[in-house]
Amino acid sequence: WYNAMVHLKDNPGDYLDEEYMMSIFNDIKEDLPPFEDYLDHMFTEKKTTSIGGKEVLMSKLRDELFSPEQDANMSSTEHMSGLVKVIAEIGIKEMTDTNKAIHRYVSANGPELAIYSHKHASQERRMALRGVPATNDLAESSLGGATYQLQRFGRIGIKHAAAVSDVRRNGWLRRGTKEEKGKHKRPAGLFHTLPEPVQFAIMESAIKDAPQQRTRNTEELDLQRKAKEAKEKLIHELNLHNSTEAYIDAIYYYKMYFSEACMKDMTAGEVQKAIDLFPSKTAKLDALKENIRMRKLGLGFDWVDDKWSKSNKAFGVGVLTSRLIAIIQREGRDECIIPTTPPVKIASRSATVPLGTSTPDLEKLEEKYSDDAKQIRKTAMKLLKQRESEGKGSLAAECQPWQRPEVRELVTKRVEVYTAVDVGDGKECIWWPGRVMGVHKEDRQEVLIEWDPLEDVAGWEFGGRAVQKLKNSLWRKDKEGAWRMEYVDTGAGEDSDDDQ
Q1: At what angle are helices 317-331 and 268-276 packed, to 10 degrees?
Q2: In angstroms, how far apart are the furthest CA atoms of the chain?
Q3: Which of 194, 222, 391, 484 could form a disulfide with 198 if both were Cys (CB 3.0 to 4.6 A apart)?
Q4: Minimal CA–CA distance to 342: which of 283, 407, 377, 298?
């Protein structure tokens, strides 16, 4: 290995030469056939755990190293040469450092220092080290037992981990020791206290059942893996569904921000005056909370505080008014940018400080995130419009002014009245738009309206004028005779390809 480090230091490009790298231990393999079997197992048969818990053959990883297919790995080939040289220099430094135990195993350090190396170790030392484990995992407690099992077999079931650790801790397989002078006799473990025929029966039973047990373990792992994949798929679909519903809410609040329902571009005094106009505390709190949600949910401003209570005590009108004033003041500053679309809240990787250049694989993940966001936007807009047509939601109702305008303020403006019309087989209530042409009787809230044409209603195919009573009590209600300002959706917050 030391010689390989010296070679790679001078020839870093050989690190990606499969023929050279896989022949480093050829001399040892010829002398130690078990070591050759070990290498075949490690680089051909062994499986490792990759990100996401998927098993990957070491041979597949080896192929990706020497013949990469992933864009990130292919693009790093040039950088690898410089990195290999640095690693080789560090490896040589470590193996020749007399402060490190490894220097005693490196033949290149000479016979005086490399006393444990194969080349310089005495015959007596070689015999003494034969069969000695290189680690102390077996001496550790239950954690060491589980680690040992994982190192040997790659994975371990919970029940098996517990059994192995119990056997080791309790010494059930421990052989007894004879009493010596000055020492206490060490008792034999449970297994060795059993009659010899019973011991043989236990061993034969275990050997006979081992293939069946391994098959069952493999089947359980396959079921576990499939269940995990199904769970991940379900979570992904659920996250997309939840994100779609959240985005529909965001669309409503985004559009409300650009309507008369939003209090913006106002001074502190103007905000306080607008809040004072509400007839009740409940109405004031509703207006304040909705205006705060327009910024938090509609615009995606994370700095907006949308908590309504503290220690189970609800905030009052004064606290929320001060909060809204602070939000409006911050909106007026140059650094506060109003987004062109509502935010899409979907599960994504944690935001971290980038080090170096983004890899192609990372860029693909970012593209997938972007594709999910586009799909959520399209699905959300489709659902929103479908629900609007089914009467399960109304942007027009949400985007109304909070205060009811006086009838004299309505002249030349367009309104909608919830009117029952004859559709042939009965009556049906619709929001009928029209323009207020003048005030008929102000004390009775009556105005003259130029109604828009209704092609399916007899007598109103070309529109017409009529006096309409706009009761104060029916402002923004949802029953016959109710009225509101006409709302025209300008498409704010929608992508250009949403309709497509």
Answers
A1: 140
A2: 122
A3: 194
A4: 298
- With tokens 């005056």, the residue in question is 273
Report CA 61 to chain centroid distance, whole Å.
Answer: 26
DSSP 139: G
* Three-state SS annotation for 15-26: HHCHHHHCCCCH
In this structure, what DSSP letter does residue 443 have?
A: G
**Residue 81 tokens, joined:** 């040469």
CA 421/CA 417 separation, integer angstroms? 11
How far apart are the C-alpha atoms of 51 and 119, rounded to whole Å? 41
- φ and ψ at residue 437, rounded to 5 degrees: -90, -20
Question: Where on the phi/psi map is residue 53: left (φ > 0), alpha (ψ -120 to 50), or beta?
Answer: left
Distance CA 124, CA 199 (A): 36
* Residues 397 and 484 sit within 8 Å (Cβ to Cβ): yes
- CB atoms closer than 10 angstroms to residue 353: 4
Q: Name residue 426's amino acid.
A: G
Distance CA 125, CA 371 (A): 65
Structure-block tokens of residue 432: 């009928």
Residue located via tokens 């498409």: 491
The structure tokens listed for 373 are: 């966001």
SS3 state of residue 136: coil
How far apart CA 165 and CA 187 sit, in angstroms, is 19
Locate 343 and state its tokens: 């935010």
Query: pLDDT tens digits, the chain, 500 residues: what are they?
Result: 788 888 888 888 888 888 888 888 888 887 778 888 888 888 877 776 554 555 667 778 888 888 888 877 887 877 888 888 899 899 889 888 888 888 888 888 888 888 888 788 888 888 887 777 665 555 555 555 566 556 555 566 666 666 777 777 788 888 877 666 656 577 888 888 889 899 899 888 988 888 887 787 777 777 777 777 776 666 666 666 777 888 888 888 888 999 889 998 899 999 999 999 998 999 999 999 999 999 999 998 989 999 999 988 999 999 999 999 999 999 888 778 888 888 887 765 566 666 667 666 666 666 666 677 777 778 877 887 887 777 777 888 888 998 999 999 999 999 999 998 887 777 888 899 999 999 999 899 999 999 999 888 888 888 899 999 999 999 988 889 999 999 888 776 666 554 43
Q: Under DSSP, is residue 57 helix (H, G, I), strand (E, B) or coil?
A: strand
Asked if residue 244 lies in contact with residue 378, where contact means CB atoms within 8 angstroms, the answer is: no
Q: What DSSP designation does 442 have?
A: G
Measured distance CA(241)–CA(224) in Å, rounded: 25
Backbone angles phi, psi at 71, to 5 degrees: -60, -40
DSSP 336: -
